[in-house]
Every structure is written in structure tokens, then in C-alpha cells.
Model the fold of this input.
Amino acid sequence: MPPAVAPAPAAVPVAQPTPPQPAQPLGTLPLASLPAAAQAPAGRVQPTPTESPVAHIPFSTLGSNPHGLVILVRMPAEQFRKLPRNVFLNNLLKALRLVMEDVVLVNVEHEKYPVALCSLRRELTARQFLAFGKNLLDVAVYTTQPYEPVLLYGDTAFLGAGEIDMLEYDAGRKKQLWQAVQRMFLS
Done:
């Protein structure tokens, strides 16, 4: 009779090391899956992230996190300097688990024309934009709707909303904004 042979030990699965995930830049939020922005209407020149007919439009900034969320506004310079103390804006950031130091505030200094994305990208590497007002970012003018977050050029999240002064005292618009922010960041 042949000698008894012990069964071979079962193969133990070895955990494969997970590839390191790129670090989320400080002051940015993970984005939900967003739809792409619509195409510009026929006959309209659509700026690109590298060139724009409004590249000369001036803007000013407050904040020191060039990788963080960019908040676009259009207001008088004195009011813009007080914006970091705005209760509504601070409460919105707090709900997103951010503080004012995590964002860059950008004031579009022309009363009519938007700032160019290519101009902003010379100073900021941010890819997340929250615009409070109309006609603030050139690449979003013809391709976005208020309170509808979209991806511009596949890498730039954009959400347009009403002016901060209007939102502060309008519960319905605040609710619209919060639902849109949740679709953009918290989904």
C-alpha cells in the first residue's frame, strides 16, 4: 500500500498592492460625474482654454490657494475686499467642509465682459469654478445654464448661480444652489 501523502496546502490569495492615488489638491473637492457642457450656438465664437478674445479683461484675486476652488464674482472693489467675511459664503463653504483659505476669490473687473479662462490659468491651476453672477467666465457664456453643474473641456467643473446679494435673502434660490452644489461635489 502506498504511503499516505498530505494534501497540498491551499493557495492563499495574496493582496495586490493598490496603486497610489493622486493626492487631491488642498481645497478641492471630489467631483461627481458631471455632464459635458453644451456646444456654443452656431455663429458664436467659442473661446478655448488657451486663447480668447477677452484675454485682456482685468480681474483681481483674494486668497492664496491657487489649486483650490475658484469663486467668480463681479462687484465693486470695496465690496469685494469684504467678501471673505460674507456670512452666506462662509456658511456655504462650511457645508462643503472648506474654509475661506481653501478658495480663491476672483472679481471680474469689467462691467460687461467675462474673464478669460486662459487668463485665469496663467495664475491659477484650479479646475473647479463656482460663479455668482452672469457672464463671468468666457468659456461658459453660451454653454451653461444657472444651477446646472457641467464639465468644460473635460477637466474644468463649472457651476453658475445668481449673485451673492440675491442669494443671501432668497430661500428658493439658496435651495437651488445647494442642490446644484450637491450634484457637483457631493454625489
The chain has five helices and six strands. The domain at 59-181 is CATH 3.40.470.10 (Uracil-DNA Glycosylase, subunit E).
